Fold each of these.
Amino acid sequence: MRTSRNHAARPAAPPLGLGGGRFAPNLFDAAIFLLIVGVFVLLGHGVREMTAPVAQLGTPVTLDPANLPEYALRTTLRMFAAIVASLVFTLVVATLAARSRKAELVIVPALDILQSVPVLGFLTFTVAFFLQLFPGSVLGAECAAIFAIFTSQAWNMAFSFYQSLRTVPRDLDEVARHFRFSPWLRFWRLDVPFAAPGLIWNTMMSMSGGWFFVVASEAITVGDTTVTLPGIGSWLALAIQERDIHAVLLAVATMAAVILAYDQLIFRPIVAWADKFRFEQTAADSRPRSWLYDFWRRARMLPRITRGVGWLVNQIARLPTPITRPPGPPRATPASRRGEMVFAAILAGLVGYAAWHIVTFTRATLSLDDLRAALGDGLLTLVRVLVLIALASFVWVPVGVWIGLRPRLATALQPVAQFLAAFPANVVFPVAVVAIVSLRLDPNVWLSPLMILGTQWYILFNVIAGASAIQTDLRDVAALYRLGAWQKWRQLIVPAILPYYVTGALTAAGGSWNASIVAEVASWGDTHLRAEGLGAYIADATAAGDFPRVVLGIVVMSGMVIACNRLLWRPLYRLAENRFRVE
Amino acid sequence: MDTLTNPVQGRTLVEVDRLRKVYPKGSGEDVLVLGDVTFTLGRNEIVSFLGRSGCGKTTLLRILAGLMPASGGEVRIDGRRVAGPSPDVAMVFQSFALFPWLTVLENVEVGLEAQGIAPAERHRRALAAIDLIGLDGYESAYPKELSGGMRQRVGIARALVVQPTVLLMDEAFSALDVLTAETLRTDLLDLWMEGRLPISAIAVVTHNIEEAVLLSDRVLVFASNPGRVAAEIRIDLPHPRNRLDPAFRQIVEDLYASMTARPDGKTGQGHFFGTGIAMLLPRTSPNLIAGLLEAVAAEPRPGHADLPDLAGDLHMEVDDLFPVAEVLQLLRLAELAEGDIRLTEAGRRFVGLDPDGRKKLFAQHVLTYVPLAAHIRRILDERSTHRAPGSRFRAELEDHMSESFADQTLRTVTSWGRFGEIFAYDEVSDVFSLDNPG
């Protein structure tokens, strides 16, 4: 029986809106961008006027190993709460975008931009916001942590679901209309199953990325408020404060165990199960597999539970709601002119209001020098990200190709690369910081690699997937005509892996921007290290409770990420898709 | 209209009255896909709509099914006006259109589920349909486990189980191999003859002439540009029909003749949409053109062939053969008339030439008879750089036709231009030029 070697690593839809056709931002992008910035500014404004609540919240965390399992459990539960919230958000918002043209006009660019906003920059607002919502209670802090994970997942998942909804095969769409499916039935019988493989793959990848943020958001100081939620992140923060390297290593081990369990017990079984929804009329020879899923199917009692879930979905599909009525005859819909005008006017009004608000707010608190400082720091971080991606590519592309061309090795190592990508690198940061401190290295240089520590693996496993997908006959041709190493790379390998590489490098770059906020500033006990850059800028502003500068930092960083995506990754991806796709 | 109704087969079931369909376009004039189509379908009648791709027969079927609104005229079934999908009609799709995540049984039940029928009743009726169509034993299989023929049986069962008045079949057998298609057709016909199908009429869209003759009581031949009923042929042969029966062969010949008939007796561009540089060209490679010329030249009567025989010999469907034959006609390398193809003087000469000579002759004919090719060449000649961006010609074409047709036309003319060495094209930079590599 053959096992899967590349299916599981291939993104079902281009990530982060790569498939989109536009390079240059249009007027609409600019409008939505203004709206989003306006919301940040409003939040920052509201939060600033709030009086600082109690200095310490939640049960104090102790470095007692006996507590570690409970902390790990609490951390995992936060992850699940976030993933459920993201799924609900995805199903509602993406469906809205796919069904209503007006909603689509706002939602799609908004998702595209939100994907580029550094999640950790959000944290300041959300912690303050949720603490305000539940004054004096840990619930606010819990919500803030969950929301941080949510923001790292929801946009991407919603985008993937939206793209699937837009690509439902025409004939199945016709069957649904022909038999007069109600919108509800259509959603559960056609839309959700069709989107399932892409959505599940995306969800699982997002969840992998989420571990980083749950660790970062459990212990956070905003101005005078310190929030500590029982969990691995808080344990780690305390260990750093107390310079306890054993506690740090324990956290690393625990995290490894948790990720391994997540991978084996959740990720793989679900991906293997979702294979049945793959839109393919022929049986595939290589399918994603999971021992747990096989075990599940072989067991006698357990599948009844799965069938129970199916029955439940059936019941949901049959639920009598206003939208379960079959649709009326199709109307020739010449879009109502007046409705369009009103919609455009409201949107323009909102954008105008946001712009006005941004101007007054920044006028009062920020000067042109601030912008210059943020941009300068941004350039430093940009250079770091680009150099690191180049270095990582230099190392991992050859390694990935070497592994990918050896099927058995790829089968064995692909899960390892995926595991490493899911492992939250910030758990390992203290180890590196100890090394930098004791060796007296320059933090400006040596803190940088931390940014890519966790994200480089995306390059590796995508390249492995790309290399193992090279057709055997093309490889045979290369062997038969004895192509030299250079010619073989230039004419076979690079073109074949380019789409995969771009996907991986883009994910790695996005993750590195995010990581800069926790990587450019590090401490060990009372020793503080700082690398000049935009991440440090945001982190410092956060620690000082200086909301205007946090907003400025986020806006500059989002702008740079969007610029990189539009000017570098999208054109590259398009080139890869158009020129090098084997049909 | 009464003449179109079969008196033997009972009273009118479906009335199609001056049906029009217009596709609006961003620029230029709208495209008329169906122009004033009028016919009726009687009870207990199987009618085929026969025509080439692009003659609007599939559009017609979708309007009948209520999946697409008409731009003018109307369709009535049992006196009721069709305005959207109705339970009176069920359609079988060319691509089967099964839900891959549902089992055979669930796929068959899906239409009943949409009607809100109780699970027990649904189950009973679905099992009966599955039994009828010869799928018993496969209830719990998923579509991907089935062969094409079995999948289409599921598609038919799904359509029958909702007990429609009219069954619509959209090229339902064309995705199947010859043997499977034959078996499925025969089974369906047997059930129909035995009166075991819960339907009153069947409308079949096909481009396969023999299939139309095997199945139907009446064949409506569609012509394109705009789509309309060009001819009607009644078939009174008893079932089961025999392909080798001279009467059968004669009907096939007649249908070929009516499909090759020129719309207005003029020669030349008759079958192509548009005129001048805006002529819509089918995707036909120079290899196919040369291949067909050689095949006709090699026939028992050199230079003259019977299209049905030729199609059989070459294992080609009408839809594959006709566009090539018509390109030959456009290029004045052959003539089409009454189901026959005859090489012209130039066509005979082409076959005898060496590759280089063929290229020259081909180039000469393309430049003379394909205005778009001449246009591109002239622009390139006029410019001092001898280069022009492809986007320019694409934009010109899009004034007259849709984006995808413009793309197809430009691709075709590019491939002809390359073969005849009339001009060169670089895909990466999207530039036409007079450079001749190598």
Amino acid sequence: MGRKLLLENAHIEGIRYYDTYRRNGGYAAAEKALKSMGPEAVLEEVKKSGLRGRGGAGFPTGMKWSFIAKPEGVPRYLVCNADESEPGTFKDRYLMEFIPHLLIEGLLISSFTLGANACYIYIRGEYAWIPDILEQAIAEAKNNGWLGKNIQGTGFDLEIYVQRGAGAYICGEETALIESLEGKRGNPRIKPPFPAVKGLWQCPTVVNNVETLAAVVPIIKYGGDEYIKLGTGKSTGTKLISACGNINKPGVYEIEMNISVEEFIFSDEYCGGIRNGKRLKACIPGGSSVPVLPANLLLKTAKGETRMMTYESLADGGFATGSMLGSGGFIVMDEDQCIVKNTLTFARFYHHESCGQCSPCREGTGWMEKVLKNIETGKGKMSDIDLLWDIQRKIEGNTICPLGDAAAWPVAAAIRHFRDEFEWHVKNPEEAQRRNFGLAHYADPLPVAATV
Amino acid sequence: MAEEKKLFKVKIDNISVEVEPGTTILNAARGIGGDVVPPAMCYYSKLQGSGGKCRTCLVKVTKGSEADPRPMPKLVASCRTTVMDGMEVANITSPEVLEARKGIVEFLLINHPLDCPVCDQAGECDLQDLSYEHGAEGTRYEFKRRTFDKIDLGDHIQLHMTRCILCYRCVFTADQLTASREHGVLDRGDHSQISTYIQNNLDNDFIGNVIDVCPVGALTDKTARFKNRVWFLKPVDAHRNCDNPKCCGKVALWMRGDEVFRVTARKDQYGEVENWICDTCRFEKKDVKDWTIEGPRKIDRHSVISQGHYVNTVKPKDPLVEVLDGRQPKLLFDIHTQSEVNRPTIDLSKIDGPAHSDDFNKSQS
């Protein structure tokens, strides 16, 4: 059984409330950071822990924090990105709903490290009930002297504000989030300047995911050296995975990053295998925007090694034969699922969520959706598959923000790995309306490359 | 002694140029001029914050700088990327850039109505030039294009949103030139639109400039709509003493004969306005007596506008009289006395709205 750091106490009744949280060792890390460590020591500890951003990109958090500009007389801000809108990802919701004080403690330590006196939690509008939970927790923390002026007599001031988004996926992109927080239209900014130099109200800002900020608490509590012992290689510590799809036990799991994908899907401790005794066909390991992998490439890398639940192992082979850990939205598909339909669903999502600022994403996402819809409804042509490939290639990398890439990757991966299924849809338009392509050869062992 | 300013050495398509630090790649390329200048549909040097959206100006940075020679991993928007010392940029020498640009042009055109034959902007349209130079001849898009209703933004400006490419230039113009901005972008994705929320009038001293900055025919001058094609008009530099202190009064008049069909600001070779003009000059001074004419305006000879442009006003020598030994040629008839349609007594510019055959109908007038 893997060690849990974030969800250690999640089972305790009433952990949502301050008293219970405090009784179970809560705010001990904040006390340690504020009273005996000081900002530099905390930053060193986070750097040492090798913590990587849990929002999807996996950028080292300690490095991100050290980039923040520190001009005299200019306030700095910490923004917590709780705009979790990636289809398949629901880990932050779990954290905020059940252990809000863990996030608040994390925000307190991080703000202290960065020297920020105001901190914003930007939460997606659809999580309508969570701001109340957070605000209650903030009030409790304030009453107990963990927020407000002169926290615990250390002279450090911090206010945390909860801001609701209006339900736009694009506001999960850090600069769009900042624009939206300022009360403007949520369009991503053109970088540079990066938020670490000019962010919220043109002041240095750090934007971090909920899970990243919460993970700071165990790092301080147990120390960076202890944290780095968990996980493998550069994927240190634990990661929340929100598993869903055709599995027996969907839900949020905290894993140590040293288990294999196979273990995660099939062991009873985690997903508990595929539902109804079906066979595994494909999996999207990190939320809708990462490339989909067929069963054979998911369990073993192209080199024949076992694929692990780590940043590196999932990305092994690049996009040709690999994927990404992303935000940890683990979507499992069994043999009854249609990849074309699934790709269409994602394309429709990205078309709907494109902000419309830059032309490749604005026009390309809609075009891809229409072409995919034709293929799905039996009106497709063979040339449409190549057209899709060409469109996604012209979107990827040419846009302002990563939404264009996120729209292009699922389509690219679906065509790359499941071209047979697309062709079958085009060649058998009527049959494709009645039945699915099935598992076909997608779980067959990979051909072993001849060694010279 | 003033310290000598350090200049950055940049190489664009193997042409070296020295520019001041802080210059963008696009402006460095404009310093060189010619074919290496990337096209720009949304960038406008006079508007702060513009650019980066249309992605037509993407270039490849093959060498980051002298200090850090790594190439940039992605194509970058040259209008928003500042140069570094020793930077090497590939624009038209990079097949990757040309391919990407072709893709962008295709994206821009898939929802564009391509109604150039009835569009007032035709002939001076940035998108038309761009697709002519960088686009493919056919389209692979087989679906219905998005459409919008035409909206009147006040008395003088009409918005034809279907043609819009969402460059945001008009938004920046209203922000930076006028007292208050009343229009903006609503909705998102490919259904986002320029709008005034609840059918507001755009009523502002300088709001007419949005017509000039619009790269396509989405914002048009209602006082000149459908009056004439731009290539039949003769652009003339003119000025007047404008009462508005912020207005320079220097304009280009678009004339045919003595009629002023349209007043616009003067534009430079990149289609950018040189000096902003006020709405009074633009919409209300349509009489040649209001203006002091400076002379014909120089138009790039590649432009279709130069086709109808009079280089000089000296009438060419008519050889017919010499051939006929000094006798005047005898005309069989004057076309205007015969034609049912063309009535030179009617000033086209004075007709309210587009000319219609009723306007020439003798029995009605």
Amino acid sequence: MTDILPLEPVRRTFRDYPKKPRKIRGSSIAILVFLTMCALFIAIPLYVIIVTSIKEMSQIIQGEIFSLPTKVTFEPWWKAWNEVCSGVQCEGVKVGFINSLMILFPSLVLSIGLSMVTGYALALWNIRWAGTFLFVLFTAAFVPFQIIMIPLIIMTGIIKVYGTIWGVAIVHAVLAMPLLTLIFRNYYKDIPNEIMSAALMDSGSFWRIFFEIILPMSGNILIVVLILQITSIWNDFIIGLYFGGIGTKPMTVILANSVITSRGEISYNVDMAAALLTAIPPLVIYFVLGKFFVQGITAGAIKG
Amino acid sequence: MFHKSLVGVTTALMLSVAPVTANALDLFVYHTWSAESEVNALKVLIDALAEKGIGWKEIAIPHESESNVGLINLVTGGNPPDVFIESSPGVYRDLASMGLGQPVTQLFADNHITENLPDAVVQSITVDGEIMKVPTAIHIDGMIYYNKAVAAAVGVDPTSWTSLDDMFADEQKVEDAGYTFMAMGGNTFQAGYLFHPLVAAIAGPDVYYRFYQEQPDPTVFDDPGLRAAIEMHRRITSQADEGWVNRSWADTTNTVITGKALMHLHGDWMKGQWRASGATAGNEFGCINIPGSKAMSVTVDAFGLLGGVDDEMKNAEFEFAKIVTDPLIAARFAQQKGSTPVRADAPTDYMDECNTVVLDGLKSIGGVQNPFNIADNDWHMSVWNIMFEFQSDPSMTVDDVIQRFKDEYDVIFG
């Protein structure tokens, strides 16, 4: 009897393919120029912000915004973190950092939890009026926040969470639900029917299937949604401004309090340092989880 | 296990974000002040309140983020502040219609406060015949702050100018010496804040109040006083240096502080920028009212009090009003904020020479109210836009501006 050996798949690397001769075309140059301009569009203001944040005010008021610092100082960063005022509380943007973290976690749990379960139900269970519900949800995604702001204020007031972190978190969850539900629903729709049939035959209930089968399969999509939501919640200003109460204003509002002034004196170096400090957390998330974000998208997260 | 962890995390989160409960005698204050000078001024009030056993809880929101929207949201959400910064009379009318207005007319009369406030302040804090606001600070919307070293180097004395023609007579001398005559910035805020003080100064109170009100008097558009104010706006803005476009008022003042320009015509909150650079009035900088002014445009910063509260809170609110308008507190508050005290009888020990210029001007010339206090908001913003367009487009004539005023009037009120 002859042993039948399994066929080894042929693995090729890019070295096995012949190199295409490089040819500089007009279109390539145009694309390069366009991309360079796009990069400069972001890079130049970023350069000004960084350089200003380490200059002394005596140099800044000379008005040469592109010049390098004659004397580098990190005092503006220290002041921004520890001393800038939001109202009479002069404890820096770190206060807002803590508030934003406290807002972020319940907001993430509420928005992702609700949307995930709703998307799962709509994609994999026979729900009456599911199509209509999806349509309404889809329509709601296009309603401007300003239109529903006052009703939301009244509703959060009625349930006694207006001005609290839970009030902010609930509003974030409500506003994120349409888009996130669509994302989860589209992702779960690609799960083969056989898996659901097998799970049902194994006497799986709605929640058991969700926790034991669906949730473990949701890694990619969760990373995508986490990045989207963390960025959106961290960078939010309006919800924090109008729904936050005493001691619950997020970092963006604390930043705006310290930076925006129509009649007060302005310290540009401290303002720039505070702005950079506020922008750092979402950037870190992108750097750490960016690879997974791309994987999630290509795995079907937010495609068609 | 997963479920237990989830419950644990959720419980911890709920406990960590539970709302903080305020004490019974804490005033819940809503305001838009976070700049260093503003905070130092508020601390004067907080210390004085603490001596009376009244605490301070606050929500601060950024400048220019529609504080009246935030205020109404707080009221709608069932969490209204006891004390709030607000200038718009419409908000006080809205609150009164909800049973939440709190007049202080009687309180001010009983405590001899009203009689010691300048007329412009009393006008500004009165809504439909009742005093509804507690005034904290006077700012003049259009003053000239000048660099004394530059003036000395060129050999000009701004205090000697008795008219705008006098002022411009020195323009060539200043420019020949290599300085910008008058510093200039570029945005709608600055164009608007240059124009309405000029209307008050050149055209006078009658034209000013016909132009800036809930519905302007359309005959004012053909008034020669208004035309003269527009012409002066052109004359001032046309001598700007090259970098004026998009320059903020603070950067504009910086060009005076650093000795590139002789002076800046803007609101007297410029003083904060001078003080932040370590300069003091009378030494590094001097100040004058617009030469030959017929009236000074006055901004009165003020707090409103919430009505419909229990007696204990009402007493705390009234105590706040008395503290704010106490002559000594008003002087110390103004010293910190860089404004002028609202009390005409405030001790002069805490004032600088610019405060004296303001108070003397209010006595001799008189003041008109800031447009935010009296004019339709759409109209006011249209005026800002038109004047900024006028500043930006040298081909636009005074007749064009007047025609644009008429067109905007038709759109808004027609």
Amino acid sequence: MNKLKFYLPVLGFVVVAIALWRGLYLDTKTLPSMLIDKPMPSFELTSVDGSVVSNSDLPGQIFLLNVWGSYCLPCLIEHPTLMRLSEEGEIPVVGVNYRDRQALAVDWLAENGNPFSFSILDESGRFGIDLGVYGAPETYLVDANGVIRFRHVSVLDETVWQEQFLPAIAELREEGS
Amino acid sequence: MIPEVGSFSLILALCLSMILATLPIIGAYQNNFLWMSMARPLSAGVFVFLAISIAILAYAFVTDDFSVQFVAQHSNSLLPDRYKFTAVWGGHEGSFLLWTFMLAGWMLAVAIFSKSMPLEFVARVLGVLGFLITGYILFMLATSNPFDRIVPLPPIDGADLNSALQDFGFIIHPPTLYMGYVGFSVVFAFAMAALLSGKMDAAWARWCRPWANIAWAILTLGIALGSWWAYYELGWGGWWAWDPVENPPLITWLFGTALIHSLAATEKRGVFKAWTVLLAILAFAGSLLGTFITRSGLLTSVHAFASDPDRGFFILAILGITVGGALLLFAFRAPLMKSEFGFDLVSREILLLSNNVILVVAAASVFLGTLFPMVYQAITDDLISIGPPYFNAIFIPLMALLALLLSIGPYTRWKRTSTTYLMQQLGKVALAALALGVVLPLLVTGQISLPATMAVAIGSWIILAMLQDLVNKTANKATRLKGLRALSFSYYGMQMAHMGMAVMLIGVALTSSFSLERSVLLSPGQDVGLGNYVFQFEGTAPVNGPNYVGEQATFIVLQQGEEIAILHPERRIYLATNTPSTEMAIDAGFLRDLFITLGEQKEGDSWSMTIYVKPFVRWIWLGAIFMTFGGILAAADKRYRRLRRKQTESNRESEKSNSIGGELPASS
């Protein structure tokens, strides 16, 4: 028995090595949210334009929740898509201005256009923590009841919209009808 | 044609290292003198051919040979020469060649500076190193040959070196870190040689100690350089992020620190023998784990090279064969290792053991925190992230405990120390340290704060204890100076490294508690206050470099109305890749750093920027420099150089210890 304890290191190593080997083939790109199929966290916060917003201001229909920041270069890449979606009335877009400064956010919207019905101001990143945000840009699909149904990390361009969001939305609509 | 010579040279190095991995080890078993004596020349041969390989890769960079894929991906004709040269380690393939080359360098050093060890032992050490190099070169040739060409149509210009890497830190951080990392392969080889021979007496610990000290010292410096570089280059004002790729060097360092302490006990007292061997294996495993994580795409991080599961699998195989094999061999041999002497509850042995337990627990916690997200994902398919709160919660109390014990260690004696003696020696020191901890911050800042008190108290506890020990140790000599001269290098090395620890702890505690930062939008002529300082924005001017264009801002920093510094942060666009990059400006000081990172230009001529005041941040790296010198000083101790005497001593010791069944006679 006393001799067997010296086999513990090699046993431990075998366990770790198997874990590492399994880890090699894991998909680290898709990031499921802890909040999938859970209601949006409740909030009562200032918006970028200064008014107070809460859960009751959310659109009573399927909408996009887009996490953005004026410092975020990829946000500029997805910006035209968001602009198109909101201008053509395809789907309402609510923004979360994540770890930014209000003045910078206002400037950025004035310069690039504002696709958002409103943008929740989250200077401290506290709301982002509730939401489980990894970083801007990130987009959530929220249903009419305010439940988060789908999450996409990184840029939302036309391809992502066509291939991931449209099918997800179609599914939600079917469910609703 | 020339790059093919590089490839060919790599293959020659492989052939030689394969012979090195087999013949001398077999020779050591069969007592075949000729085969054993081939180890040294073969090591030199492996080194020479790897040197030719890496020189040819550097030549391909300097001459802009973009037909070589690795050069095309990591260089550009506009890149300044010093970065062309160092771009050799700017990507996976080249940096792995550097890694292997450095291991060959260590191996050559062992071959040269091992005259005092028995040939049989040297043959085994070099054979194990040859085995590792064989694995590394096979890995390169199979999955990541740096000499692969782009055929038939090479690009006209290269894709350029990542702009974040075009910096002085990139020239020095990777080679230093690698040098320290692979140094632990040498320690591993010593441990393996001891296990293979079955002769695990105190002699191997003595031969191994200077190598372990030097590897540890260089690794300390390498990690500190990385921290310093991240601090001034990445622009978020931090010096440690608990990034999954920062953690393996730290794990290696923690095991390595435990190892150099445990080696002391094994060498001097013949205790903890199996434990020391295990630590040597674990430190080496930490270094391979770092390689595995950065090169397999297992975890996403700023350090990660391009992901490729095949590479990961290959490195995992190397890890499995070497570390798995070593641990299995350990399991067979460890029951044969017996401690030679007992010791009491209050003794230097116990203090060293506590040090080891704390460091190993710390290393295990960091390891767990680094890999847990992956394990969690494998089991539940969900993602979680483990961040600084976890690591800080575990690490800070452990390090505080370590610092408390650190002062007691040098006062204890081997085998038994009386508690009254310790109380009598350290009671006053403890009181003085506490008093300083309360009074000093109060005098400087006018207020009492717990972090500052803790930092100053722990720091002065270590430093005061050290000074008193110096006074005690020199008291019996004719003059103090004579007394100081009579103390050994290893004693000074230990005290210096311990003082480095104190300085670093003070730096960490004060920076973490008292740093200020502020993000603002300023137009030329406006100013902003932070702490006792006023930062005045004068304006920007265009600036052009060899491969970038940018804007340089000018700030005047005022303290109580007096100008104390002028800072020039920059915002650059690198031309080849069109990537923006920010160059912060730092006014460095012994007691505080001021620095500014420039954001983007907003409407009109206003700019966004972040301003930081970081008290005592330099102490973190200053402490690391002390530790590095301490390690080197300890390794330079005279007793490792007294060759002949050492050898007879070690033989006597191995006879005395009569460690295992005597299957091999003590060779001389």
